[in-house]
Amino acid sequence: MIEQDDFDINTRLHTIVRGEDEAAMVESVGLALVKLPDVLNRLKPDIMIVHGDRFDALALATSAALMNIRILHIEGGEVSGTIDDSIRHAITKLAHYHVCCTRSAEQHLISMCEDHDRILLAGCPSYDKLLSAKNKDYMSIIRMWLGDDVKSKDYIVALQHPVTTDIKHSIKMFELTLDALISFNKRTLVLFPNIDAGSKEMVRVMRKKGIEHHPNFRAVKHVPFDQFIQLVAHAGCMIGNSSCGVREVGAFGTPVINLGTRQIGRETGENVLHVRDADTQDKILQALHLQFGKQYPCSKIYGDGNAVPRILKFLKSIDLQEPLQKKFCFPPVKENISQDIDHILETLSALAVDLGGTNLRVAIVSMKGEIVKKYTQFNPKTYEERINLILQMCVEAAAEAVKLNCRILGVGISTGGRVNPREGIVLHSTKLIQEWNSVDLRTPLSDTLHLPVWVDNDGNCAALAERKFGQGKGLENFVTLITGTGIGGGIIHQHELIHGSSFCAAEFGHLVVSLDGPDCSCGSHGCIEAYASGMALQREAKKLHDEDLLLVEGMSVLKDEAVSAVHLIQAAKLGNAKAQSILRTAGTALGLGVVNILHTINPSLVILSGVLASHYIHIVKDVIRQQALSSVQDVDVVVSDLVDPALLGAASMVLDYTTRRIC
What are the transmembrane regions (predicted)? Predict the structure, then answer.
């Protein structure tokens, strides 16, 4: 493979001692240490790049360090759970420069007293290839390795290695895994284990069970990386204890079953199901039934596809004239450690999408709730035009984010209507957004951007925005009401968003406050939305205008101008008694709805959000004083101070989930 990549190979060393036991591993390291000094003396490299945590890499790092050669270590700071941890951290202490893949790994390196300025958080280089891997002819690869009758998502990839600190148990676990795979009865590609101690015994188990001749199994020693990518990307499941399962496979959302303790410390995406005590065949079989055939959002914990350019930039910045002696930064370390290093400054951010009745907005939102850049277009009337515009705007925003040094962690979407957030599907929408029923938003965006995607109702997003950035921050229980074109809201209970059994919680606009009130867009009548929404105020404004009762001195409506709620509010401010009465009635209806909420949910705070909130706040408080039980009259009602709650709420879904592992 190295030859195929056209590297200029100066020296070939044979250092692996056969035997596949602990002694053979030690002898391999010793043999490499004997042979490497002559090679390094001849080559005189400026920098030695050492990758990973294998015992042969330890020999390279040891030789280079003792011969005063600068070492750049890639993928340091990670935690897995085997002897590899010790080797990885030993190489870290020998290395002068560090390229890590995750924020946690960066924090570990800093905790290990490595110099902050010599650490680059770049992401995993393999993700550069994974996230750009598009092979339309993947079926030919699947057929080549698994047979002509195998379909995409209908096979398993199995890759299991010995655990050198507990060889006996890892062999037993491998035997149980093969038994479970035989019982599960799906076509399976089994890769031979690596050459660590215990691998010889694992191969014996394979042969004892006849895996190489079993009709459901294909046993191979090696698959070229480009083909392996396609095989795991389109597998129904991957099983084993390889780091590939918890790292690279997450890029495709392929389900993974991680067995035993070999990767116990790794950060993983939601696609990974752990079976740490894989001590029975039944446990492994149950895990296969749970995971096989699922599709998860793509995970970018280990990279965003731009690692190699960052590493090249980092390499070019190294001053070969600076002193070679390492400096260690012993505690106390800096309290606010971030990615702000001289070589690259990136802001953890989210792409937020707000689908309104009129406009479609996309924004880059930082961890602190700052809207770095916002894009606005008219919301198209048809599904096809709308979904294409969303994809186009998100792709453009993601490209712009790179220029703005913003690292996009995922996409959050706020939309009107009833939403199933678990599946990322708009079940059915409001009348304002046409052709928007039973729409899967997660899949097209995740496939296009290679990012995880979250979707929720706009009212719920407003509540999430208040929880993270607004007046609900730190509160256990509160309610948000949106007053805009329609009326919506969200409920936070015990710090969590409430969706309800059919994703219909917090439809406050359709609380009935009058048995004989005006018709509502939902088909009922007397709803809060029929009184207090922007549409309701527009309806009343048109009635007044048609009767020449809207305009007062200081007002005018142009010939082609549509009468709206704005004109009604303006007329009320200028003393129009009928307009004032309509606003009072609307505010009273909203106030009665808030009283019902106080009596039903008993939150500690009610937040009014949206363009009409400030016009209703005083009337709502008056209604509470007059109508509510004394036990809830002290609950505070406030106007939101967030400018874009829908966008901030959409962003918070991404930021809260993707950063929960490092908070």
Answer: none
Residue 520 is labelled as binding a ligand: yes
Q: Are residues 576 and 611 in the same domain?
A: yes
Which of 104, 123, 142 is the last residue before a domain boundary?
123
Asked if residue 656 belongs to a known ligand binding site, the reply is no
- Structural domain span for residue 549: 475-640
Give the residue from 580, 578, 625, 628 showing the smallest Cα distance to 600: 628
Please provide residue 265's backbone torsions phi and psi, each rounded to the nearest 5 degrees: -95, 0
527 in a labelled binding site: yes
CB 99 within 8 A of CB 120: yes
DSSP conformation letters of 580-636: HHHHHHHHHHHHHHHHHHHHHT--SEEEEESTTHHHHHHHHHHHHHHHS-GGGTTSE
Catalytic residue among 154, 458, 548, 636: 458
519: annotated active-site residue: no
CATH code of the domain covering residue 525: 3.30.420.40
270 annotated to bind ligand: no
Predicted TM-score (pTM) of this structure: 0.53
Quote the distance between the C-alpha of residue 76 and its chain's center.
Answer: 23
Express each pLDDT in 362-397 by its tens digit.
Answer: 999 999 999 999 999 998 888 899 999 999 999 999
CATH number at residue 248: 3.40.50.2000
Do both 508 and 452 map to the same domain? no
When divided into structural domains, the chain yields a total of 4
